[in-house]
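Q: Second attempt. The first request was missing the SMILES, so the protein and flavin mononucleotide are both included now.
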Amino acid sequence: MANILIAYYSHSGNTRSAAEKIQKITGGNLFEIIPSEPYPAGYNAVVAQAKKEKENDFYPELTNNGNVKNYDIIFIGTPVWWYTMAGPVKTFIKNNDFEGKVIVPFCTHGGGGASMTYEDMQKLAPKAKVMSGYTSYEHSANENDIKAWINNLNL
Ligand SMILES: Cc1cc2nc3c(=O)[nH]c(=O)nc-3n(C[C@H](O)[C@H](O)[C@H](O)COP(=O)(O)O)c2cc1C
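A: Got both inputs this time. The predicted holo structure:
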């Protein structure tokens, strides 16, 4: 496989765990997307803040925007927040140039599935080729499923 970056945001660890499994399988470089202002740890507080941010189409500032320039394939992982990707992932996509790149999305959710996550990624990066995503419930991402998914993509 070509040069691979695995960029992810995780609030409570589930998406991080999926990202680490993908890293192990692909040998790509891991990049954690970190908002400058950490989100509150408490569930109700973060749910309320994320709702407000979604309503305002807010792009939270990141400690580091990363750089996808040297990569051909960028896995992008996010928890599903209010039926789409989390705010920090929106910022990461908006602040990088995905022209000619392949995005391989993945997400973890709490029961509602990926919802609009992958469609919204394609909207934010219209020039990228967005592949079929890997969607897992909470911390249930599993190495065999991830291997099968990646094999099917023929990257
Ligand atoms: C702010 C917020 C919004 C959420 N919205 C959804 C949702 O719309 N659909 C869903 O299935 N799960 C939702 N969840 C649950 C998370 O997607 C799920 O717990 C995910 O695995 C968390 O990933 P993380 O541990 O990497 O942060 C939400 C959780 C939070 C904190």
